[in-house]
Structures
1.
Amino acid sequence: MTRQVLIAGGGIGGLAGALACVRAGWEVRLYEQAQAFAEVGAGLQLGPNATPLLQGWGLGHGLAQVAAFPERIVARSSASGRELGRLPLGPRCDQRYGAPYVTVHRSDLHALLLRAARAGGGVHLHLNSPVEAMAEVPEGVQLSWADGRIVEGDALVAADGVWSRVRELLLGDGPAPPTGHLVYRTLIARADLPASAQANEVAAWLGPRLHAVSYPVRGGELLNLAVIVQGEPPEDFRVWDAEGLADDVQQALAGCCSALRDLAGAATSWGRWTLCDRPPLSGPQPMARGRVALLGDAAHPMRPFLAQGAGMAIEDAAELGRCLGPVQDLALGLPAALGRYAMQRWARVARVQARSRRNGEVFHATGLPRLGRDLGLGLLGRRLMDLPWLYGYRPQA
Ligand SMILES: Cc1cc2nc3c(=O)[nH]c(=O)nc-3n(C[C@H](O)[C@H](O)[C@H](O)COP(=O)(O)OP(=O)(O)OC[C@H]3O[C@@H](n4cnc5c(N)ncnc54)[C@H](O)[C@@H]3O)c2cc1C
């Protein structure tokens, strides 16, 4: 019996979902709105909760070729550049969690997933296909497009991101609102930077009312730098390229140390993202309904202050494959399996969403809370920064 799942969205979550479903014995038809598969944006951190899942899909070697393996995460004061605390990574992370902590260019990870989806068979990829409508029908789920195309599958996975059309049709709970943060992102050739700025580390520069994150990607060739400030969303906040962003960044960093300002000064171009999220999930309901499941940002858009949005999408995908694998009875077994997927995922994702929000407050603290943060990191840095509940998670066998 061929069991067919439709996937809306071909980002990191959609492609990871496709790989997991194919491995679980399902045929996949994936529909991406863009005219070409590509990822905009810059870098991603992937913790040892996500990397073993990629390794399990046979992507460990490919990942090692494009990723960087930072030796530590260092929290610094954005005002002085002083180190506040550190978490060793490298071999210590491997020993503790049995998997590496890596940093990778988003398009490199996306290309890796895409190659695997194309190579394995069983995944049919369709570009230029912005899903317009969906309907549950007695034997399955239908997707349709503005040009009149209609397809039917046994199940539907919505991996169409923070502004998910499928979520809107299924739950009607309105768009994810802006959080009040703007992210400026750039990539800099590391060879152009002074040796002092070439450390193989994830640096989180914590300020009052802003923070910045820098780390190597593309095997260390490039440095990813993101500067996160508090601010009102621009009028068209879904557009990420705009004029004059370098000036905005330098203005935002005016009170910061010269090391951070010089780093930003070395950038030749910037993109700007308006962050949007939803409150932490309060139950499994939004993640599955009937024959439809939500995955990644469509299900739980989160602030990137724990660097786990893509990691959660990859974990979702692994859990989805595990739940769909044994399904034979499509009428009853399939909705039950998707319900199980939602049950397995929601509480963990909610915890990550909540922690991401809290990190944002801590990273941007002012006054006494800022002093307390800096003191705490100095005394207990490693204990505060190591998160066994997060990094040690393995989906249930
Ligand atoms: C500044 C920043 C830094 C981040 N850093 C990290 C990090 O370090 N680590 C980490 O794990 N995560 C990080 N994240 C989060 C991570 O980028 C996202 O959580 C992750 O990319 C979500 O993947 P997704 O596939 O669910 O959604 P998306 O990547 O948004 O993919 C959705 C796809 O669906 C397509 N689509 C949309 N609508 C339709 C439609 N109607 N029909 C068909 N296709 C459609 C889109 O074109 C897109 O290809 C960061 C995010 C930001 C903004």
2.
Amino acid sequence: MEKEIVIIGAGVAGINAATKLVDNGYPGRLITIIDKGNDPYNRLPEEVMTGMLGAGGWSDGKLTYHTAIGGVLSKYCGEEKAMELMDQVINNFRRFHPKPEEIFCSDPQAEPEFIKPYFGLRLFPVWHIGSNYLHEIAKAWYQYLLDKGVKFEWNTEVDDIDFNNSRIYTHNTTLQYNSLIFAVGKSGIDFAQSLSNEYKLPTEPKSVQIGVRFEAPQKYFQKLIDISYDFKLYQKYDNVSLRSFCTNNNAAYVAVEETYGDITYNGHAKKGKEFENQMTNFGILMEIKGIDNPFEWSRDVVNKLQIDGKGLYYSPNQTRKPGLTSEGTTVSAHQVDDYSLDDIRNAMGGYFSYVETFIEQMNEVFQFGDDYGIYIPEVKYLSPEPLVNYNDLSLTNYNNVHFSGDALSARGITVSGAQGIYIAESILKKN
Ligand SMILES: Cc1cc2nc3c(=O)[nH]c(=O)nc-3n(C[C@H](O)[C@H](O)[C@H](O)COP(=O)(O)OP(=O)(O)OC[C@H]3O[C@@H](n4cnc5c(N)ncnc54)[C@H](O)[C@@H]3O)c2cc1C
């Protein structure tokens, strides 16, 4: 019998799944990929999250190669299989790259002595694809799938899914599937949540991820940046672990994020000499285990850390002010003084002291004195992770519906793509 596979989301997970299927002889005409964004020829630069290759298609193109980075993979399939799946994703990017010889790998080998005894440094290889090549990769990859007969529906948003009758609905069509790969990424987080509520999908317990965005002149951190550009310092206590996260250098800007009506902070790096500001910024994120209702707890903390519709900025050196955005305006934040630190400590339920210790100990190593500032808070609201069968990532209640990528538990390109391939392998085995 011919089995129709529908993939919602032409992002990294969905496209890698389709590629694995057709590479292994699955007829492309039986695969339909639906995406609310544009094909790679019509996708505009400002369409950051949607369209061919999804958020990964317009990203920085850094492919991390470690099972502790980028979300959960080895939990489902074990360490060895996880690495093999990630190899397949990297090979796919290489295969459709116009200049594969320009892909390079940074691979720090040893923790530098100077960060000890306070910190560990996560060592992992990163393949740099080059963000300016991602568009060309997307086009070549798209053409390959079209040539194999895969059908694409662009600018088409899936509004609802009937898991009981295996049907999906868009504004003007209904499609029947035998297998569904649900790969909607972060831009589909609300849709995933609504399905989770509607079908009362059981979910995995999640931890809280909250902290601050740290900013200081780059010169203090240069000796570490020379070893690892996107360095990941970490510390571990009983139920709390801390890590530096998403480091930006050279032309590094703090960005305001508005989520659920509150202000939180993030950062990004620009390319181009004209943007250079010789600053470094990174998140200092705590992962706190064992909090009931982590999502509600985080939202409540974030809400308490707002003044006049802004997040907070603190520097022990009161002449240091919030920095400039890449557009040249001041990062929107309410500057607080030493007296307000107690309010912040209370709002974070006592956990802020871990962040303070992390900063004090960084100061021992990097000697930046009072020449820094923190934007409060930075938060990661982790997507609800539905409970899946570990052998094929299918929902425990609906075994022909497979969740993957950021809609499951991934937080990066390699893990998302690897989950897509893992699902495709299970479908191939069944057929
Ligand atoms: C600016 C930026 C930079 C990043 N840089 C990196 C990096 O350098 N390295 C790294 O590892 N990760 C990076 N990431 C994260 C990475 O891009 C994601 O983890 C990855 O793309 C997730 O893959 P996915 O397939 O799950 O989802 P996505 O790639 O986000 O794809 C989901 C697709 O689903 C579609 N969709 C959503 N809802 C619907 C719906 N209801 N109906 C139809 N279609 C729908 C969207 O249009 C989208 O194309 C970055 C993300 C951003 C935003």
3.
Amino acid sequence: MPELPEVETTRRGIEPHVIGRRIRRLLVHDGRLRWPVDAAIATTIAGHAIKRAGRRAKYLLLETDAGTLILHLGMSGSLRVLPASTPRIAHDHLDIELDSGQTLRFNDPRRFGSLLFTAGDPRLHPLLRQLAPEPLEDGFDADYLWKITRRRAVAIKQLIMNSRLVVGVGNIYASEALFRARIRPRRQARSLTRVECARLVRAIKATLSMALKVGGTTLRDYVGADGNPGYFRQKLYVYERAGKPCRVCRKPVRQFTQGQRSTYWCANCQK
Ligand SMILES: [Zn+2]
């Protein structure tokens, strides 16, 4: 699944191709995504220039004078910048054709992605309004994590993956950050000490920044905006390494299921 680093990598990849470009037309080849794509968007958005390519959590925001396109890649979506004449392949559902002759093409085999539109401030859209702090911004710090963990008995891994508390820490990065912070994924959130909160915040920021630097994680369904896969996977400490030696202590990496997701950890390194 594209996680925050993949979405931010996509944003950076498309940005130079879309800023200042007019949307010639929006083509909805198949609008049966997570929510049906409203056909009226095409009429509203046509002819307007993209002023900004932003991101909030895993939503890409293409802002124009008429309003903002809100795109989510879902479980398996990807956006590519291509010449508009490029023949479509299976699962190419949307084209945002630009006056440059290029198109932003949305491909999504599993259809959990979405395209929505808002004429108002996208940050006030119902899907975005309630979102928690961005993990790479200053608002997410040791004080904040300390505060939100005090009364919560939930496992710390589940807490950092809760998008009402912090956005964009998906399954891979949660396992990796807890390994870096040397904290067991099943620990009750409220059991973390102040020092551990600080360490975990640093670990989350470091894990996401590292992933961003290399362009996201290599996942089966993920390709960057330029069509190249990310290369983060080679640097993973524990994720999908069950039974393999821990990169720090050489003891086998363990795996269990937590909230229907696989968690990977080292019983020797994490306390
Ligand atoms: Zn270890």
4.
Amino acid sequence: MSRQLHFNLFLHDTGHHEASWRLPESDPYANLSLAAHQHLTRVAEEAKFDSVFLADSPVLWSDPGRRPSGKLEPTLLLASLAATTTRIGLIATASTSYNEPFNLARRFASLDHLSGGRAGWNIVTTAGEAAARNFGLDEQPQHRTRYERADEFLEVSTKLWDSWADDAILADKQAGVHAARDRVRSIDHHGTYFRVDGPLNVPRSPQGYPLLVQAGSSENGKEFAAKWAEAVFVAQPTLRESQDFYADLKRRAVAAGRDPDHVVILPGIVPVIGDTEAEARELDAELERLIAPEFALATLATVLGVDADRLRLDEPLPADLPGEDEIEGHKSRRTLIVEWGRRENLTVRQLIGKLGGGRGHRTFTGTPVQIADTIQHYFENGAADGFNIMPAVLPSGIEAFAAKVVPILQERGLFRTEYTGRTLREHYGLPRPANRLELISR
Ligand SMILES: Cc1cc2nc3c(=O)[nH]c(=O)nc-3n(C[C@H](O)[C@H](O)[C@H](O)COP(=O)(O)O)c2cc1C
């Protein structure tokens, strides 16, 4: 079969546009509603999406005065969604900087069992001082240190997931033997950041491990992705930058000894769909009018690593901003925003307008055919294996994408019309990982 697109729906209560909750049709409590998340996931599953995804950080992330900021814990929410869906993958974000491997490995193994092999983990290192201060630290660990810890975190987690052989459980009632003791192993890990004996207290799950997803695109982030990630979310504002990132990461995966097809690259896009071009542009403009610039300014200043009073709404970005090397936070997002502002010579107000929709992700505004054409163009020109769909307004944005864009791509043979696999890895065309401890013991 020819190569096909992969789609992930990035769940985000009333939508990815920061002003979406203010639209007349939006439920301002959707962020806390199981029914709202069930609806979004059902629409994505009926459209045969590979997965849905929840972002997360152990901190009050956005300004609670400005938009709905309460976030339910993602693995709990996805475990609830597992009960009302049957095929779609369920990807939760969790931080390697503010968790311990045993807890997280257990949580994701549990989600994989509960969902019948549909769990994914978006591995993040968590940028920002505010999160550090929720865990007894005065400042965040350095960027490099966070990624070193993440690397060891994955080493420990994968050993824990492998600590039960796939055939360990015998459930032999006659003999009174539930599991073969010699097929359940301790891991005895003694490293720089962790000491973990194991074994895990959850047997190996349907997928072996959850699907490993990653989303940081700094130098350290890309090295980490090349080694561990099976799917990568990325924010890229232009086709050219998407192509460069795509080629670079596939090259790094090969250098790390991996099959480049086993790293699925999914740029984020914000589809703004209208039956006519004018209608799509009007929806875009309506949302831009609802942005409260003073709040957006404060968010922008944090990412850029400057005080908000350094930014003037009707002037371009200051010339002397701190460089990527001088900040310890979201390095790649800072660079993307600065380059965008400079390239298009935008005022701070214009930049905020563009970021309001997708925080740096590419907005595709147009008719269903135009959006399908752009998706196909990226897919066939070395820029993407699929997309992380981030509608500006939910649920209407995913309903429109499912009803109007997906059928066009299906007709062109670019997207599945039925699920062929059962697990999340099968949807993404990825192999189930072998059990390393089992290989050693045989
Ligand atoms: C689509 C997408 C989703 C992301 N989701 C999260 C998230 O949920 N939590 C988080 O802390 N960072 C998230 N990030 C940010 C990165 O994972 C990363 O932590 C951050 O950019 C800093 O790493 P870097 O300096 O390597 O880019 C996301 C990034 C992208 C592109």
